[in-house]
């Protein structure tokens, strides 16, 4: 039902945040995106990944153009327009889940196994990370994780209803034990992010799942995160064309194209020795051979 809102993004959002873009080629495009997308910049050098460092404090009184923001239950700010375009609960993310499984299948990397994909709050990601015994870093927020352990996860089961002043009231969550007989029990992704960012994180985590399910174990961390970033980047690339869907309003398609370019640029220029260097190394190998050949190489190098 809410799926129809995913592609609808108020173009004013494009002007929101410029501080993150000064060092990128987007400086000239005046492209900037959601608070949620830009809550941080650099990913940490940890496994299971897609972490962002919390950067500038997001104060309501400093918001550009006097726009109104809502605070999500876990303390993140989101502008009202993004609130409508964001993927807010586990139900809403399922079409994207299917889409990304099809994307992998289209690359001859079909993921046969079924596992949960749950949207969760920041705190739930942190807890899951602790249970997976992955070290966390101070000031780092995780955006997605691929779980191998059976554990209880509290997920966002229903987008928060909007109360007075369009502020969300509460959040409907439910706890469940994620269990699986395969190497992946669930993928968790932070709720409330724009569809394109959610999809990129999901593609990245899905690649971790693919590797585990296909016996790629004890891989070099740089190569593993690198290939996962490559898949995230490839999915974004596929959205460049999807975004030109004529059924979308032109300005929305324009916004999405800019967001795709922005996210791709972030991946390509990421200064992290794991995610950034890993992407560049693996992407170079993919470009000079193929994805399948690169996977063979990664197994060999592992
Ligand atoms: Zn990762």
From TrEMBL:
Residues 106-300 form the Protein DA1-like domain. Keywords: Membrane, Transmembrane, Transmembrane helix. It comes from the Eukaryota. The keyword Kinase does not apply. The chain crosses the membrane at residues 6-22. This is Protein DA1-like domain-containing protein. One of its GO terms (molecular function) is ubiquitin binding. The keyword Transmembrane applies.
